[in-house]
Hints:
Blueprint: H1 6-22, H2 33-45, H3 51-68, H4 94-102, H5 106-118, H6 122-126, E1 133-134, E2 139-142, E3 151-154, H7 160-179, H8 191-194, E4 214-215, E5 222-223, H9 229-242, H10 251-264, H11 269-276, H12 281-284
Helix pairs in contact: 1-3, 2-3, 4-9, 5-10
Amino acid sequence: MRHYARRTAGTYEQWVRRFLRFHGLRPPREMGQEEINAFLTHLAVEERVSASSQTQALSALLFLYRHVLGKDPGDLTGVVRARVRRRMPVVMTPAEVQQVLGQLEGTTALVARLLYGSGMRLMEALRLRVQDLDFGHRQITVRSGKGDKDRLTLMPERLVAPLEAHLEGVRQVHGADLAAGWGRVVLPHALERKYPNAAMEWGWQWVFPQSRRWRDPTNGREGRHHLDPSIVQKEVRRAVQAAAIPKRVSCHTFRHSFATHLLERGADIRTIQELLGHNDVRTTMIYTHVLNRGPCGVRSPADLL
Length: 305
């Protein structure tokens, strides 16, 4: 009813299960403030989870009590909160980015280049539809990003030709699916009822579809889902190892590197905030701390000896 992401619903379910197991599977209606406080304190003290994980668990339990059970969870101010630790984002140099990208091939390489060239999150890139790519204006529309927000970001000039060639191959696969009686994709919300044939239209197809057809569990019809994120994550991890880069590089590191390298080249931080989709510019400001204007902007006295 609240249109939460499926991943959010799954995460909330996991935290509720952990809460119930912690209290010996007692019915949640029989528990409240005291049990919630005990569980959240256990996470911080015994399991030493991060502050964000504890907050996530709290959000799941608040949702359970307020919106599912219709019960006031009580006063939760006595919870021992996990310590908030400030972490610097991992950022690759342009040379390191090039080394990692050089180890990738095919669709995975195109996805990784798009992550670095546009600053998108991995799932934002994989959920792109054909109609979200505006080759004329060299821009990409990110639909329902973090916080269910839409935004515009860059389409790298260097990726225009590879993206067009990739889409030509996707169009051929889509045409073959239609000829075989398939070719449908899952549409957001109630659009499939409003536009029954839209699921077969070219504009609604995934930019990065799976190689195999997928069966919709709700109606049994076959179509194609977008590429699974684990495929890209595994290939990026392999590429980092092959490039012998000792940093903890993941798909999200391309986003950090995108923002930092734009700042290094003099881009306005407000513009970068819009490209990344941050609500608060203070979130974007973290990238100013990894620039060469910080500790690397002065000379060590040891270098003067």
